[in-house]
Amino acid sequence: MTDFPEAPIYEHLARLGKVLSAPVRLRLLDLLDQGECTVEELAQRGGLPLKNTSAHLQQLRAAGLVATRREGTRIHYSLRDREVSGFLGRFQEFAEERMSDLRAEIEEHLGRDETVGAVTGPELEELLRGGEVVLVDLRSPEEYEEDHVPGAVSIPSRQLEERLDELPWDMTIVAYCQGPYCVVSPRAVRVLNGTGRQARSLRGGYVHWKRRRDTG
Amino acid sequence: MTDFPEAPIYEHLARLGKVLSAPVRLRLLDLLDQGECTVEELAQRGGLPLKNTSAHLQQLRAAGLVATRREGTRIHYSLRDREVSGFLGRFQEFAEERMSDLRAEIEEHLGRDETVGAVTGPELEELLRGGEVVLVDLRSPEEYEEDHVPGAVSIPSRQLEERLDELPWDMTIVAYCQGPYCVVSPRAVRVLNGTGRQARSLRGGYVHWKRRRDTG
DNA sequence: TCCTTATTCTAATAATCGCTAGAATATTGG
DNA sequence: CCAATATTCTAGCGATTATTAGAATAAGGA
Fold it and tell me: Where are the bilayer-spanning segments (chains A, B) (predicted)?
């Protein structure tokens, strides 16, 4: 077997890798990055059985990535601190940079045009400073209420079609959803561009923006 | 099963986690961070069978973490670019920060006094500027020749005892080995302190220092 | 206290991954 | 072209991990 003196240390280190090696756990971490959640909410939004969810959350907790808070009979999970969010962003960025099949999958999933034409964080700042842009938050009113990008107006994605007349023809529209791999904003951008407007998606959605704000 | 629309993306993302979930692969990455290596060298230094080593290297290559270069019948592996080195550092740092059992393991492995008393990168710069320090490279002459911290003198760890008289009594001695989890420099520090000198280890050894130089 | 709800713990099965042996490939030197 | 060396590919076994059902725990309300 492996017999170098540092072996036990790498054994421990690998535990972090193991935790990040299950798709479900990475998904849960991204959900938690959008805000505190109960086990049931996470199970629902992650689309997997409750017991399964709980088991994965235990592993995340054992690795020191998430924290729990009890409120009555419910247990609320959240990322343990901001550095977890920052690390998660770095992890995803790094993976996207060098795994070309991952990039291909993202483009296929979100739509090629909407992916490459997406607005990055610094670009958004620039656009907001110029004032030539309307920023649209497509998430639920509750999510918008809890926190949103300053200057954004709330138009939940389901109401987009019926509230189209609130959106201008002569300014760029930037739309964002939860992110980082959410389809909602690319879809909305397609709709808006279909009406002849100038719309772009915010790369990585709310989560990426928040990571940038909180961890630089 | 898992049935949310972003599932295939997280599936791909998890491949990076999987690659980082085996102790052997993390070890190989750290070895590669010290410089280019052939498969045989890696197998030897990692203390595992050749075929096994090759299999792991394939996985690292599939994930875009390492590059290969053929020279005659040998194949030389190296980290694909500097960002891999930087990410690796971030990964280890993050793991050490929040997994207390990992910290405990490191302290036990390297020695408690030598770990907490270790010199960090910025501290070393400060000490070198002041000129009140002797920096000792404990690695092999070949490794020293290829690259070393500016200002370091080469005293391979095996020669330390017989070359003790080259080291001063009135200055702090900072010693480093390959790192980041190498026992050589903590051991040397114990020997030096045993003679009554003032010695400290460089935290993370050559690898940490190089990561700092190359990726900031 | 007892019942209900939310979650975790325990244990068993199913899927995945690491390891290793044998065959295959690629390059160099004769 | 053949032999030698370095490495990779293929396949099967063994170990680890995910999943999930059932029992257990913990808090809140009747």
Answer: none
